[in-house]
Amino acid sequence: MDIRWQDREEIAIRLLEAHPDVDPLTVRFTDLHTWITALPEFRDDPKKSNEKILESIQMAWHEEFQDAKS
Q1: Strand partners, 3
Q2: What CATH number did the domain enclosing 42 receive?
C-alpha cells in the first residue's frame, strides 16, 4: 500500500511500529519529516509537506502512542 501525506492515520501507525518507545511530542518536525519519507511505503513528494501536515501526523501518532500505552 502506497502512503501519501494525507494518509495521516496510516503514517501514525507505521511510525508507532518503527519507533514504539518514542513519545511523538518529543520529535522535531525535521526528524519527523525524515522518518516519514524513509518509510518503505511512502510514495509522495517530500517537498509537499508543511508544518500543518506534520503537526497533524504528529497528533495522530500521539493518539496511537497513547492508545498503545493504555
Answers
A1: 42
A2: 1.10.10.600
C-alpha cell at 13: 501507525
- What is the chain's length? 70
pTM: 0.95
pLDDT in tens, 39-60: 999 999 999 999 999 999 999 9
- Decide if 3 is inside a domain: no
Strand partners, 42: 3
Per DSSP, which regions of 1-70 are E strands? none
Domain count within the chain: 1
- Examine residue 13 and state whether it is found in any structural domain, yes or no: yes
